Amino acid sequence: MLESIGEQQNARNLDAFRRALRGLGYVEGVSYAIEYRSADGRAERFPDLATELVQLNVDVIVTRGTPAAFAARRATGTIPIVMASSGDPAAEGIVARLPRPGGNVTGFHTMAPPEVAGRRLKFLKEALPGSSRVGVFCNPATHHTPLLVREMEKVARAMAIRLETFEVRGAEDLERSFEAALLRQIDSLVTVEDYLIVTHRTRIVSFAAASRLPAIHGLREFVEAGGLMAYGIDREDLFRRSAVYVHRILEGAYPADLPVEAPTKFELVINLKAAKTLGLTFPPSLLSQADHLID
């Protein structure tokens, strides 16, 4: 298994994967073993880690994130690879097509339907009825990002919210975006997740806290780093589904014939401690929708 981004989340992913395998009749240490590798947030480590797994002659490689999937695919054209999450693997050239990926790679992409981004903005407005100028931190170089931003723009117009978009194409853009956001006097913040944004989540969350800007993000990891709210894909569910794909491959299925599937489960996570620090009181209607409340 090859992944990165957040020790807590990695542990939950691995636990979800193990539990799903157990439900399929596998016994760790008896019928299977896991060789686990983490890049610890350093994408440049993935090629060497992938090569290690190939040299161990593992039966299947499970990856999390586009950089890990790329590294695994470059390391082997024969060992089956299951992407527990990847941005847009067809557009990024990891697979030929989503319905029929071809080659030795299949799994799950993280292209949430655009309405998920719109719903993120609605949750923020529900928490902050007076919000009227929302900043959006995003990486426009990520293929799916423009679709999500356009959906938020549509929802923002309907709610009389002005969006201010700040492009983050590299780590060096973060400080400029922070300064620009303050100059434009935004009153809240939304992030559009990709590998770059997620890798620098601690800096983004720290900026929002220091600037007393309520923010909603796309992944639970932001909330665990101290962020206020997150609404997006349930990554643990993707790892549970990945276990099913691993099972099918071990039973004889070819990755080329297994479609790359979309996420189907989403979660709202709220940090009550962060809310208290900001002096916010969430309405009961919003709290009742939360899948996880973090004290």
How would you describe the overall organization of this protein?
There is one protein chain. The protein is α/β, with parallel strands linked by helices and 295 residues long. The protein is built from twelve helices and twelve strands. It has helices at 7-23, 46-55, 66-75, 114-127, 145-158, 173-183, 195-199, 201-210, 220-224, 235-250, 272-278, 284-287, and strands spanning 2-3, 37-38, 61-64, 81-85, 105-107, 133-138, 162-167, 188-191, 215-217, 229-233, 266-271, 292-294. A seven-stranded mixed β-sheet has the order 7-6-8-9-10-11-12, with helices on both faces. Strands 3-4-5 form a three-stranded parallel β-sheet, with helices on both faces. Strands 1-2 form a two-stranded parallel ribbon. The model has no long low-confidence stretch (mean pLDDT 94).
Order of helices and strands: EHEHEHEEHEHEHEHHEHEHEHHE
Rg estimate, integer Å: 20 Å
Say what oligomer this is: single chain
Termini, distance in Å? 31 Å
What's the overall average pLDDT, rounded?
94
Number of strands: 12
**Unreliable stretches covering 5 or more consecutive residues:** none
Percent strand equals 15-25%
Structure summary:
The protein is α/β, with parallel strands linked by helices and 295 residues long.
Topology:
Layout: E1 2-3, H1 7-23, E2 37-38, H2 46-55, E3 61-64, H3 66-75, E4 81-85, E5 105-107, H4 114-127, E6 133-138, H5 145-158, E7 162-167, H6 173-183, E8 188-191, H7 195-199, H8 201-210, E9 215-217, H9 220-224, E10 229-233, H10 235-250, E11 266-271, H11 272-278, H12 284-287, E12 292-294
Parallel strand pairs: 1-2, 3-4, 4-5, 6-7, 6-8, 8-9, 9-10, 11-12
Antiparallel strand pairs: 10-11
Helix pairs in contact: 1-10, 2-3, 4-5
